[in-house]
């Protein structure tokens, strides 16, 4: 039995293609792995605050010096980090906004990329602590960006996940979704076909 952690980051609840892909992936995954436990965190329904001085205080100050707000910020970060630590498989649903990821997803990453918890500093540089996990990143894109210098999404997420020790990462892109009928149909069909293979 494995634990899946699914992170939804689309700003839209209705009409979201990334949510559609996530739903299809989970149906197929559950059919193939019926005993797996699935946790879904929706960053649009329950936004994570952006990194601020309160959270930094919760991380860095001794516990007996925390304000009530710092305690609450630390507790929230701990919850998000614990979900990630417990997961064997991470699924990130990440529509492309302005060539990169939604700010909600960046805020989540800022809560879980934590020194001493998900990575550590060593004499030879930082070392990820979340080895042995897999990640699937489901992206939706209005244009076609894979491999181009306008894609700041896949390189950033690969680097961020590798930084915490997750190197087994597969990207499934649905591209060309705003380029007209044929491009939309082809981009979505290719993504769904790949989802079926990996699930």
From TrEMBL:
Please tell me where FMN binds in this chain.
Answer: 10, 16-18, 96-99, 140-143
Might you give the EC number(s) for this enzyme? 1.6.5.-, 1.7.1.17
The record's keywords, sorted A to Z, are: Flavoprotein, FMN, NAD, Oxidoreductase
Q: Which reaction does it catalyse?
A: N,N-dimethyl-1,4-phenylenediamine + anthranilate + 2 NAD(+) = 2-(4-dimethylaminophenyl)diazenylbenzoate + 2 NADH + 2 H(+); 2 a quinone + NADH + H(+) = 2 a 1,4-benzosemiquinone + NAD(+)
> Which residue ranges traverse the bilayer?
none
Description of how the protein assembles with itself and partners: Homodimer.
The protein in question is named: FMN dependent NADH:quinone oxidoreductase
Family the UniProt entry places it in: Belongs to the azoreductase type 1 family.
What residues does the Flavodoxin-like fold domain cover? 3-197
Cofactor list: FMN
Q: What does this protein do?
A: Quinone reductase that provides resistance to thiol-specific stress caused by electrophilic quinones.
The UniProt note on the cofactor reads as follows: Binds 1 FMN per subunit.
Which top-level group of life is the source organism from? Bacteria
Per UniProt, the enzyme's principal EC class comes to oxidoreductase
